[in-house]
Design goal:
Distance between the termini of chain A: 40 Å
CATH superfamily of the largest domain in chain A: Dihydrodipicolinate Reductase, domain 2
Structural class of chain A: alpha/beta
Number of strands of chain A: 15
CATH topology of the largest domain in chain A: Dihydrodipicolinate Reductase, domain 2
Oligomer: homodimer
CATH class of the largest domain in chain A: Alpha Beta
Strand content of chain A: 25-35%
Amino acid sequence: MGLDDVRDYLESFTHRDWQASADDDGVVRFALVGLGWWTKERAMPAIENSTFCETTVVVSRSAEKAQRVAAEHDAVEAGLSSEEFHDGAAADAYDAVYVCTPNARHLEFVESAAARGKAVLCEKPMEATLERAERLADAAADVPAMIAYRMHTEPAVRRARELVREGAIGDPVHVHGNMSQSITGWGPDQWRLDPDLAGPGTSVTDLGIYPLNTTRFVLESDPVAVQSMMDSSHEYFEDVPDEVAAFNVTFEDGTLASCTASQHSQLDSFLKIVGSDGRLCIEPAFHSESSLRATVGETTIDIETPQVDQMEEEFDYFADCVLDDRSPHATPEHGLVDMQAIEAIYDAAEGNETRTL
Amino acid sequence: MGLDDVRDYLESFTHRDWQASADDDGVVRFALVGLGWWTKERAMPAIENSTFCETTVVVSRSAEKAQRVAAEHDAVEAGLSSEEFHDGAAADAYDAVYVCTPNARHLEFVESAAARGKAVLCEKPMEATLERAERLADAAADVPAMIAYRMHTEPAVRRARELVREGAIGDPVHVHGNMSQSITGWGPDQWRLDPDLAGPGTSVTDLGIYPLNTTRFVLESDPVAVQSMMDSSHEYFEDVPDEVAAFNVTFEDGTLASCTASQHSQLDSFLKIVGSDGRLCIEPAFHSESSLRATVGETTIDIETPQVDQMEEEFDYFADCVLDDRSPHATPEHGLVDMQAIEAIYDAAEGNETRTL
C-alpha cells in the first residue's frame, strides 16, 4: 500500500455512507415516549438538528410533564399522558415513535404504536426480559422497526467494521470491551436498580450491551457461548447482581471477547480488537464520542472520523430507512440476539457455568 | 493537591526503590541453565550490564552448545551439559542458578541447585503442572528462591501499584489485560506447543500469566475464582487447547479481571485498571517496555517512568535480596498461587464451569 492508497482510503469515507434519501425527500414525525433526561437532553436536540426528523408529540406517564415539555418546544403539537397515547390521541400528528421508557415499559408502547401502523424506534435493551422482547418483535413485525443502537451509525465504528471486513487486521482473534460509569449520584431510587423495570440486572443490560452489540456489528458475527462473573456490594445494588460484571463471549467466527460493565466505577469505555495481523482500538467508544486507532504490523494510525452527534445520526438513519422503505440493520430480530445473550449472561453468572446459545 | 504536591510526587520516585545493598556490596555469580534465545539475547546482556550479577557458568542439554557459548563470553568459566551440572561440575564457580529451560525441566535443575545450597531464580510458570511446582517449592524451601516475574521491578508497574495503594483511583472495580504474540513463525516443532514440556497449554501458561500476576501485584490481592474460554484451530495448536484464551478472575477484594492471551495474534499487551475514582493504563505492558497513563476524574497524565532493561532490574533485584539476606516478593509460594489459578483456568475451560480456588 503506497501513499496514494492511503490518500484514496482516507478520502473514500462519507460519514453518511448509509444515506439513500435526498435531503429534501421529506420528514418523519416522531412521538417521543418517555421524557427522562436522555430524551430531553439528547434526543430532542438531535432531532432539532436532524435532516429527516421532527418531534411533533411527546408522551409521559405524567400528563402535566408532557404538556409542559410540549409547551417548551414550538414544533411539538401535543403532550400526552401514556393513557392518552394508548387511546390513540393525536395519532395523525406522528408517523413514528421513539420509545425511551424504563425497559419493562417498552412493550406496551410498541404494541400501541404498531397497532396503528406507526414506525418504531425502540431503545435498547429491547425489553426487560427475552420473553417480552420476543413479544415486542412480534408486535412490530409489520411496521418499520429498529432497536436504537447508536454505534451502528458512529463513523469510527463503521470505519472499524470496514477495516475488519477488508482484512486489514487479518483474522480477528480476541476483543476487549468495557462500558462503565457511576449512577450512585442519582440515589437509590432509580429504575435501573429496580429489576421489575430494568430486567435481571443493571450493568450488563444497560452498559454491557454496548461492547456486546458493537463487537457483533464490527465482526459481523454473532455469539455462540457466554460466561460471566458478577458482584454487587454497594447498598444501592442489593436487588441486582451486577454492580460490576465481567463476561466472555465466543463468537461464531471463533473470536473471543472479554467484556466488562459497571454502573459504579469511573466513566470509561473502549473496544479493542486484536487480529492476526493488526489491531483496532476505539477509545473512547460508547459515551457519545468515539475515536479510532489502527495498528497494522508496526505502524499505528489515528483515524480522525467526523465527530458527529450520535443521536442525530441514529434518528436520521432510521428516518432514511423509513423514507426509503428499506429495513434498518438493527431490526427487532437483531436485537433479540442480544436479549438471548444477555439472559444467558445472567444465567451463566448465577449457575457458574458457560452457556451456549 | 497543588502543583507542589505534583512535583513532590513526580520527584519522589526512585526506580530502584527496592535496592538495599550498596553498589559495591558484591556480586552473585550465576549459572544460566537453558541456552535458548531468551537466555542468550536477553538474560546474558542484562547480566553484563547489571550491578550485582555475573555469569560464570552456562548449562545446556548439549555440551557442545554450552562450551561454544562459554567460549564466546570471557567471564564465563565453564560450559556444562545438564548431566555435568547435575553431577556437581564447577559447583564452586556459581552462587545461584537462573533456570530458563522448557517448563517441565525446571524441577530437576532447581533440585540439583538447591541440594548444593545455591540460590534459585526460576522462570515462570514455575513448572508444567501444579504438582511439579509444589515439588519445586519444597526443593527450594531452604535456599533463597524467586520466580522470575520481571514486571515486579518494572517502574511503570511499581508506580501503578503505589497509586492503587494510595487510593488514587478509589476502589478498583475491574481490570482488562492482554498479552499476545505470534509463535507460528517458529514452525510446529517447539516446546511451547508440546504439552509434555509446556504443561496443559501454551497461551495462558506462557502469556496469560503476565496480566494475571501483574494484576495480583498491582492490586495486592489474590484470585478466588476463575472461568475461561479457549479455542485452537490452527494446525500447530492441535495438542493444546489455547491458541487463544479469555479468562475472568475474581480477586479477594471483589475486583473482576478480564484477561486474554494468544500465541497466534498480533503482538499486543496492556493492563487497564478502572476504579471508582479513576483509572490506570499500562500500555504497552509486558513486551519489554512499559508506559503508564493515569486518569483521575477528568484529568489524564502520562507518567514517564524510566525505561529500564526489565531483565537487568530483575536480576539485580534478586541479587540484592540474596546479598541483603531478605526474601524477594515473588517467592515460590507466590508463584504457586499463579500455578493454582492457571490449573483452574484450564479445568474451567474444559468443564465449562467457574472454578473457585
